[in-house]
């Protein structure tokens, strides 16, 4: 039966696959409603310096689902990316983040100096009007663009690299800084890395986790720090969960730190 149905025919004989397709469609629909009904939340996780002083936050998206509770981005970002919903959703995150920066500036005190990092989907960057969209977001909110950081992953290097560089440079000229997220897990070519206007590399938490037990992970962390130094970039270690990891990374010369040891993501 499956052969005669042809290669492209939808086959309903696999209940597990059918269930997955239905689940995905349901998630997509619910996600569209989430955006419309205001179920998205922006959480923040502190970023600290070598003295463990908070210097900023990373904005992390959450979905306050009426039945499922707080849904993690790992469970819905991939679906949002496939359906294109990541574009209006990313727009919401940018506006929300800029409003937060403006509120910190108004409140004064040390928060007025904090930066806020926003995660971007490669699909956002590929929009022809991306530079204008970002500029409109900080302008309309009255936020200082020098406090806004944009986090990209190495997967963006798979697409039109010249276009990416042009857009990044236009935004960098506005004072916005870029960080390369989850560094070490992707496809980075060192030749490209040097051409991107990056202010920061973020060591992926998979290298931080076993840093003290696994000499290979320690070597990777050291190598990233050396690379960043010669490219004049800062390094942020993510996933720092213990004082011992903090101490080891600090001794290696790491500049900035993020992880449960300093604070979990919480409502901004
Ligand atoms: P990411 O940008 O690498 O964010 C760090 C993730 O590590 C966060 O997960 C954070 O909660 C988690 N984390 C932080 N410290 C620790 C730690 O000490 N130990 C452990 N085990 N985990 C830690 P989260 O919030 O679930 O976000 C997952 C990913 O979803 C993010 O990874 C980012 O790639 C994506 N994401 C989050 N918000 C957005 C957004 O607004 N837009 C886009 N496009 N992607 C987003
Ligand atoms: Mg990030
Ligand atoms: Mg990260
Ligand atoms: Mg990561």
Automatic annotation (TrEMBL):
Q: Organism's domain of life?
A: Bacteria
Q: Which residues form the EAL domain?
A: 24-268
Q: Can you name this protein?
A: Putative signaling protein
Q: Which residues of the parent protein does this chain contain?
A: 435 to 702 of 702
